[in-house]
Design brief:
The complex is a heterodimer.
Chain A lengths: L6 H18 L7 H16 L8 H11 L13 H9 L7 H14 L5 H21 L8 H38 L12 H28 L2 H6 L9 H25 L3
Helix pairs in contact in A: 1-3, 1-6, 2-3, 5-6, 5-7, 6-7, 7-8, 8-10
Chain B lengths: L2 H23 L5 E2 H9 L11 H10 L3 E8 L2 E9 L1 H28 L1
Antiparallel strand pairs in B: 1-3, 2-3
Classes of the chains: A mainly alpha, B alpha+beta.
């Protein structure tokens, strides 16, 4: 895109392009990247006379004329998985897919080993239902109570894993630093000996800081990792949040450096 | 005739002839995507969602009925132009002939019924 949009308009366009991708991606008769480029060029041309930044209302008028991407292809040209989900989701009032999501989720909660099968199945079916709903630009309505439970549970588990992934360097850093320096007052209370506390902080901040700088940079350049992993709850995540993590990592490293310098470590 | 039935029939009719209209719009000159949309807008009631044209263009390109070329534009970013290939012209001729035959048949039915 060559035109400047307001923040709200850019988010609106991002949502429209996501709907387009969900509706068209995988269809064998077309080249999705070609269509996306053509649509963006169309929007550029429609709005080139408008003074920047272009407002959400002006963009919405153009997108309204383009129409809903879910209507652009006939059913027989859609990707196979989309045809399957559409057969279950037969219209705005259809509850079949929602009941199937909840049914599989309920089976997953039964204390059997089949949780390994049913929980991912209900989760991915729920994701497909939400994607389909977004592409049709419809309201989920009461069906959300049936579709969201597997999404919430799996997203919570993923969030816990993600937090553990971000914070495990603290533990590693503390353990490695204290082991390395063979501090006498190792346990049980590190706060009795301030030197030990400083060592622990040095280790924790140093290792966590480097880890956060690395992963913050990755997430800043690829924010879609978070958005895809935590769909539909992670759509707010932007590159700026990744840079925030990078900045926190930098602060942690500087703190570790200050402690190290003060105590003559390293 | 119920409104929903008419609406559905009209939508299906438009979808069926959009490819023919797009190929006909490229008959005399090459155009870029937005120009094709602008041309088709002039046919009242033909295009409901302008975005439907782009997947059709992509499909026509895959069928090698049209080819594309990118050229610098004095008015802004480079533009992608569509033009008919020889196969596309041949296909267009066949489709226009089919259309003629169909249209004559429908007209004769209408006049019999009138």
């Amino acid at each position: 895109m060559n035109i400047a949009l307001t923040h709200e308009a850019q988010e609106h366009l991002d949502r429209y392009l996501r709907r387009m991708k969900v509706s068209l991606y995988g269809a064998r008769s077309i080249d999705f990247e070609d269509v996306e480029r053509d649509v963006l060029a169309h929007i550029d041309t429609e709005l080139e006379e408008d003074p920047p930044p272009v407002s959400c209302e002006r963009l919405e008028a153009v997108l309204k004329r383009l129409g809903s991407p879910s209507q652009w292809l006939p059913l027989d040209e859609l990707a196979w998985w989309r045809k399957v989900v559409l057969r279950l989701w037969t219209g705005p009032e259809s509850w079949r897919l929602a009941y199937l999501c909840l049914g599989l989720f309920a089976l997953a909660l039964v204390p059997l080993p089949t949780i390994i099968l049913f929980l991912p199945a209900s989760y991915f079916l729920a994701r497909a239902a939400v994607s389909l709903n977004e592409s049709a630009d419809e309201e989920l309505g009461p069906r959300r109570w049936l579709i969201y439970p597997p999404l919430i549970l799996v997203s919570l588990l993923l969030a816990l894993f993600f937090l553990a992934f971000l914070f495990f360097p603290f533990v590693v850093g503390v353990a490695a630093t204290l082991d390395n320096w063979q501090s006498p007052a190792l346990r049980p209370s590190v706060f009795v000996d301030w030197h030990v506390a400083a060592l622990a902080t040095f280790g924790a901040c140093g290792s966590a800081g480097i880890w956060w700088i690395l992963w913050g940079s990755v997430l800043a350049s690829k924010p879609q990792i978070v958005r895809l992993t935590f769909f539909p709850f992670g759509q707010w995540f932007r590159g700026l949040h990744g840079w925030t993590l990078t900045a926190l990592g930098l602060v942690a490293v500087l703190l570790a450096a200050a402690i190290g310098f003060y105590y003559g470590l390293g | 005739m119920k409104t929903s039935f008419t609406d559905n029939w009209t939508v299906q009719l438009r979808k069926g002839i959009l490819e023919l209209c797009i190929l006909n719009s490229l008959h005399s000159s090459r155009l870029y995507g937005y120009d094709i949309v602008r041309k088709l807008r002039q046919v009242e009631g033909l295009v409901i969602g302008e975005g439907t044209i782009y997947p059709i263009l992509s499909r026509l390109k895959r069928e090698t009925f049209v080819e594309t070329s990118v050229e610098e534009s004095p008015e802004g970013p480079p533009r992608k132009y569509y033009e008919l290939t020889d196969l596309g012209r041949h296909q267009l001729c066949r489709m226009n002939t089919e259309w003629e035959v169909l249209w004559r048949g429908i007209e004769s039915l209408r006049q019999e019924g009138a």
